[in-house]
Design a protein that fits this description.
The chain has helices at residues 11-19, 34-46, 50-56, 59-76, 83-95, 97-114, 123-132, 192-235, 244-270, 279-305, 308-336; strands at residues 138-147, 154-162, 170-178, 184-189. By secondary structure, the chain is of the alpha+beta class. It has a 4-stranded antiparallel β-sheet.
Amino acid sequence: MNIKKLRIGAGICAAVILIGGGAYWYSSIDKSKPEYAVQLAEQAIANHDREYFYRFVDVDRVLNDSYGSLIDGLTDSERVFNEDTKDALKDFTEILKTPLLASLKDAIDSYVATGDFNAQKNAGVQELLSRTGFDKIIYRGLDGIDMHPVNANIATARIRIYQPELPREFILETELSRGDNGDWKIVRLKNFQEFVNTLTEIRRTQLDSYLEKTNEIISRHDATILEAEQQYSKLAAFDALKQDSVRAEVRTLMLDVYKKDWEARKQELFGISAPKPAETLHNLYLKICDLEINYADDYAKWLEDKRASTLKIAEDHQRQSQALKSEVEILLRRMTGGEHPAEN
């Protein structure tokens, strides 16, 4: 097993199992030292030996200690909850703590036994960890192990991990404890909250940047659309659309201004990379563009064929667009606390 290239498929699970990969460079280790536990945890994963793995990793304690940080990552990184909602969600997740931890442990158990987290069986856990970014952690190496300056039964392993959203490797400090039987055991991820906070801050910055860029695009194009709608209102006033010359002029407005501007808006939005918290919002933006483009095409077609069925199709596109715009407004209020109104 190439530990350096081992890609972990779940967050906290990854952190626990990454610990097990750290002692590959030890050829001979004193069993009384914590390095021995790290090496044996690695070998247990390589050999799919669950009994040995749990002998050197206190999975229950690690998961229980890390649970709060995991939930913080879920509720903070996407900035889609106000403080009251986040508090309510945390209360709810406390109720679900026991079954969620059981599912996380089951995913680890599956990985140690088979080398696979059994995504189908643990789909809920996989989604939870994916939303918090912990499913992309990659092990990069063990920096070393430090003994506690006072307590000879406590040590800290410094493990380098990589997460693609972070600008640099992160040093995960892992606590080991020696039991009465003399065995060392991995018991805690000391700075897991720091890892969560670092990732959360980066995601917030990415989300703010995305919202700023898209708001500029949408505001600029909305100004053009507003001008086109005002021009349309003047042309279509007082049943003027009964005149063929006016219908031809409105058709040109719809195709050469309205439609082209929505196409240009879509192209600009398509060129922006949406961070995970904004993926739903981004897809709504693009869908709205498609609906408005279809509306322009069908409305222009109606101006020629004058069929009620054609007009109905055009109006259906615009009704769908308006419904999605309402969804956008809701998402934006959740993401920004109501600071930035939806512009589209």
